TrEMBL record:
It comes from Loktanella gaetbuli. The keyword NAD applies. This is SDR family oxidoreductase. Gene3D superfamilies: NAD(P)-binding Rossmann-like Domain (3.40.50.720). Keywords: NAD.
Length: 284
């Protein structure tokens, strides 16, 4: 049987996994709401489905693997809202199901370390929605579910260089603030390693080895570009959107031992410095 991934909300991280699977003769079916994105999928060898909208049941019937990247909304998880019963009825059909969550489920730990056994005490509405979605997926009997709690994502097209170049980057200083992050290529490697070694019921933190204050990342990007380090602004004085400000409600360092010890993952980019250097080199 052809290995077939059905990817719900086939976005940035899922497309990085696609780049690993297609050369291995996988069939990849990806959902999107956007006709232009569907055309781009097709050009890369991914079978697009406009969903919600198109009949997704034939794709579900063909799938050996599921990946859920779609974020929960006001009505909960969008995939389960429409397809809970259909997925539950086919639970035994799937070899692997992956749910992309967030390290936001752990909430604020005042800069201390957390691992996958830490309590889920989200400090934001987004984090709470992810906890609820994780529980809803976990409650489906017989589903070979794997949960991936992903830290701040960066990669091609998603890095600090553009803002540093155009002068809009700021080094926002909040005492004790630290974030974990991960390069999108390493997310794909973790997912592929899990597909190769399924362990239903497992949760994995997906992040690099070097949690760091966000202002350090901005400063290093400026250094790489040979540009002045952006000004420092106290968190209390910074003009920020409510979304941006909410990220500063949580400070923690996330352990990633399980992806190494259990899945054998060797990170391509174990810290933001190596990741940013590679991005700049990739830009040419």
């Amino acid at each position: 049987m052809t290995q077939t991934l059905l990817s719900f909300g086939h976005g940035y991280s899922a497309q990085a996994l696609e780049r690993l699977l297609l050369p291995r003769d996988w069939r990849v079916i990806g959902t999107t709401r956007n006709e232009d994105k569907a055309a781009a999928f097709l050009a890369r060898g991914v079978e697009p489905r406009i969903w919600p909208g198109a009949d997704i049941i034939p794709a579900l019937d063909a799938a050996t693997h599921l990946l859920i990247s779609a974020a929960p909304g006001d009505d909960g998880d969008p995939v389960l809202a429409e397809l809970h019963d259909a997925i539950a009825a086919r639970a035994g059909q799937f070899e692997w199901v992956g749910y992309l969550s967030t390290t936001g489920v752990y909430g604020d730990h005042e800069g201390d370390w957390v691992d996958e056994n830490a309590p889920l005490t989200p400090a934001t509405k987004r984090g709470q929605a992810r906890v609820t979605a994780e529980a809803a997926w976990s409650a489906i009997p017989g589903l070979p579910l794997h949960i991936f709690r992903v830290a701040g994502i960066y990669g091609p097209g998603r890095g600090p260089f553009a803002k540093v170049r155009n002068g809009t980057a700021r080094r926002i200083i909040k005492d004790g603030q630290v974030f974990s992050r991960t390069h999108v290529a390493d997310i794909a490697r973790v997912l592929a390693a899990s597909i190769a070694r399924p362990n239903p019921g497992a949760a994995y933190n997906v992040c690099d080895d070097d949690p760091a204050p966000p202002q350090d990342v901005i400063a290093y990007a400026a250094e790489l570009l040979g540009l002045p380090v952006p000004e420092a602004v106290a968190f209390e004085d910074a003009e920020m959107s409510p979304m941006a400000r909410s990220f500063y409600a949580e400070s923690k360092k996330v352990r990633n031992d399980r992806i190494k010890d259990e899945l054998g993952v060797e990170l391509l980019f174990p810290d933001y410095r190596s990741g940013l250097r590679a991005l700049l080199a990739q830009e040419g």
